[in-house]
Amino acid sequence: MKRIFSKSLLSTYAVILAIGYFYFRDSLVTTSVAGSALLFGLPLAMAAMVGILCERTGVVNIGIEGTLLFSAFLGFFIGAISKNLLIGLASALIGGVIMSLLLALLTVNWKMDQIIAGTIINILAAGLTSFFYKQGYALPSILPRWEVPLLSDIPFIGPVFFTHGPLTYAGLILIVALWVGLFHTRWGLRSRSIGEYPSSADAAGIKVNRLKYFNLMLAGGFGGLTGAYLALELVGSFDRGFSAGKGFTALALMIFGRWNPLGALGAALFFGTAQAVANQLMITGVVNIPQPFINMLPYVLTIAVLAISAGKVRPPAAAGRPYEKENS
């Protein structure tokens, strides 16, 4: 444990030193890249929280992509029709919870194979959003940026962390809150126990299926918030296939982060930094490489890191296996 902690500290020091070096070389470019890294990485981190909550509870959720797509669809179109972003936000959250309830029904009640259940959610979301999609709608605006007084004036840190929209702040706060909840509260201990040894948890008096439902709904809320962030704050529009594989990328980042919210956040920021650097290379013309190859860089780096670290991680023991009380 001490060795892992030391490695984490060394990695943190290395990142800080690298940022300091590039900041003193070109403060504007470094600040811009870091800010873009947060914007690219945060939705992936929030989506990874969906997978972490589900798998820590014993449910494999490959339907994150569908949850993001459906919630973004509801958030955008209901927000555009009502001309009210708060109504759009509430609709996106409800959409995420609806998808999570469907996953719970399929996997907890009906004991369906969890991979198939997630695939059904992805297909359903893609079909519904494509069928009901209409052009010509627009939001009255996007969610405004809030500059935190005093903190936004701090060099580098202020522009990167304290000049964003409300859902950016909410996402960062909720990720930290989820880490605290999972590893430092009774709810977290019970959730992790049903993801590892559900029969023992049941014998200890924990209502396994009830807690699964609760946690899947909570995960759906994270998915709905992510969809709302994409549609109402980051992009301000919607199109078919809007989620663009972010749900599947989040699954990889979840594994890379070892099913830990802060680890997944770090992995997402790594991915976002790679994307931001790739964009900066295209803007400055540092390298003469076709744009599609530059766009591949973050995914190639993520796959490489995941391939190196995948053999060293262990998922929750009961993830993917429906709990049968009568067989315990």
Describe this protein's structure.
This protein is mainly alpha-helical and 328 residues long. The protein has one domain (34-315): ABC transporter involved in vitamin B12 uptake, BtuC. Helix content is 73%, strand content 1%. The chain contains 13 helices and two strands; from the N terminus they run αααααβαβααααααα. A two-stranded antiparallel ribbon has the order 1-2. The two termini are 32 Å apart. The model is unreliable at 1-5 (pLDDT under 50).
Descriptive keywords:
328 residues; mainly alpha; ABC transporter involved in vitamin B12 uptake, BtuC; two-stranded antiparallel sheet; 13 helices; 2 strands; 73% helix
Low-confidence stretches: 1-5
Number of DSSP E strands: 2
Q: What is the straight-line distance between the termini? A: 32 Å
SSE run = HHHHHEHEHHHHHHH
Helix content bin = over 70%
The computed structural class is: mainly alpha
Shape: globular
Task: Determine the strand fraction and express it as a percent band.
Answer: under 5%
The figure for the number of domains is 1
For the record, the CATH architecture stands as Orthogonal Bundle
Please compute the radius of gyration using only Cα atoms.
Answer: 20 Å
CATH superfamily: ABC transporter involved in vitamin B12 uptake, BtuC
Output the CATH class name.
Mainly Alpha
Provide a count of the helices: 13
